Amino acid sequence: MTTSAILQAINGTSLAALLFLLASGFTLTFGLMRVVNMAHGAYYLLGGYIGLSLAERTGSFAVAIVGGGASIVVLGYLIDRFLIRHTGDNHLAQVLLTVGVAFIIGDVALAIWGGDALKVPVPPFLRGAMELPGGLVYPTYRFVLILFGVFVGAVLWVLYRKTQIGAVVRAGVDDREQVSATGIDVDRLFVLVSAVASFLAGMAGVVGGAFLALYPGAEWEILVVALVVVIVGGLGSLEGAMVGALIVGLLDAYGRWLLPEFSYFVLFGPMAVLLLVRPRGIFGRES
Amino acid sequence: MSEPLLSVREIHTYYGDSYVLQGVSLDLHEGRIVAILGRNGMGKTTLIRSVAGLTPPREGDVIFKGRSLRGQPPYAIAQQGMAIVPQGRRIFRSLSVRENLLLPTSRLARPSGAAAADGQRKVWDLDEVLKEFPQLAERIDHPGAALSGGEQQMLAVGRALMANPDLILMDEPSEGLAPRLVQQIEEIMKNVREHGHAILLVEQNFALAMAVADFIYVVASGRFVFHGTPQELWGAAEILDHHLGVSGGGP
């Protein structure tokens, strides 16, 4: 019983690491530009597929991760520049537009990679299981994923909290107009933040596609859970994405284990209760 | 007289559907303070926003350092040497005092590297600003949200100075401040003028505007109904009485 409980905690934490990669980009682009990009799940799936093809061609997981992320940076830029920019502050238009973009990406991916569930091959040293302190045996890949998530989170946090460019982004989240009146081109800043978000989403697809598999519809499943992370943590907050990912990851793992029939309720029930108490999420602020 | 630093020419500005500025013109020379007086809702803030490019005029032109600002986005206008101390201070609440002050020095705000500093004028950096506002030095690592109203106003002025602008636009800096702090704002503005910066001040506080301004415009319903020196304004009893609610009769 306790061993299972601990294993579920590790399961939940490794899912949290993956969700954080996806949710952090979503929350920062929303915080800075109030852009709701529902294609984030499709970015995840497409990044994963591209990573899969790269891994099969080159045999390198690192190339897959970087290539999957980089290709989504290019795609994300084009979609921002030529589609989303025209929607201004109209959130409904953004949602409809980006949902449409997500469907197109999903169809193109279906045509190229087919309808079967595919897994990104991982290098031999990440395969199999490892022994954790206390005699627990756990899949190596998912354990390393936790370390990777913590590493990416730490890098993002230092960039966001401790550098001047991070201060400019935080200022933009506070008061975009005043940032531009200070002489800073917020649109250019957004290109940078959006590129980071796209890279993280594409990279998450490769990393996640190695254990959750890639298949048509996976983009919506992951998007819904990532949105719960963002809403629970508080839109626009990096710390919120971290804490939200951990909460959602653990709820999902324990929900599937203890109440498998109600696993969706275990996810959405607490979110509804939290929103009653804190409508803006844990780290959300009045705007 | 030399070319004005800022020349507003016959601008018409709309805020949504309402026709706020109905053809106003003004000149401001280097190292001077020009004040716009008027009651609430007469278009004072809109004038500041028009000059800064935040609410661009639909007609007319704003000339800054001899160049038209028409069609330029706010960040490009700011980079040419204009800083704003906005109404309500608009401190970046989640940034520390230090981060607030350093924001205008970011490379993103000065793509060309070195702006400002034309030789004789004082160069404002973090040390100089903290010398001018010692109360900010004590709270340098506090978040902007934790400051009092007076401290936020000092921070807003300090942030503007960090850009080393030729022109500072100030929108009701005395709003909500205790008389002692209004006094301090007055001293700071005179001091800033000493250092060669021009100020376009928009105020409801009659005494403050009269004390610092070299030249005054009175705005009513989107038009200027008076322009002249503070002495001349003292003589314009009808303007004082009708548009500013002050009874005339000399200082």
Question: What layout of secondary structure does this protein have?
Answer:
The complex is a heterodimer of chains A (287) and B (251).
Chain A: H1 2-33, H2 40-58, H3 61-82, H4 91-113, E1 129-132, E2 136-139, H5 140-162, H6 164-174, H7 176-181, H8 186-209, H9 218-233, H10 238-258, H11 263-277
Antiparallel strand pairs in A: 1-2
Helix pairs in contact in A: 1-5, 1-6, 1-8, 1-9, 1-10, 2-3, 2-4, 2-8, 2-9, 3-8, 5-6, 9-10, 9-11, 10-11
Chain B: E1 6-15, E2 18-28, E3 33-37, H1 44-52, E4 59-64, E5 67-68, H2 74-79, E6 82-85, H3 97-102, H4 126-132, H5 134-138, H6 149-162, E7 167-171, H7 179-194, E8 198-203, H8 206-212, E9 215-220, E10 223-228, H9 230-235, H10 237-244
Parallel strand pairs in B: 3-8, 3-9, 6-7, 7-8
Antiparallel strand pairs in B: 1-2, 1-4, 4-5, 9-10
Q: Which class of chain B in CATH terms? A: Alpha Beta
What's the CATH architecture name of chain B? 3-Layer(aba) Sandwich
What percentage of residues of chain A falls in helices of 4 or more residues? over 70%
For the largest beta-sheet of chain B, the strand count, sense and barrel status come to: 6 strands, mixed
Unreliable spans of chain B are none
Total DSSP helices of chain B: 10
Cα shape of chain A: globular
Main interface by residue count: A-B, 22 and 28 residues
Bin the helical content of chain B: 25-40%
Compute the number of strand runs of chain B.
10
Average the pLDDT over all residues of chain A and give the rounded result: 92
Radius of gyration of chain A: 19 Å
Strand order of the largest sheet of chain A: 1-2
What shape does the CA trace of chain B take?
Answer: globular
CATH class of chain A: Mainly Alpha
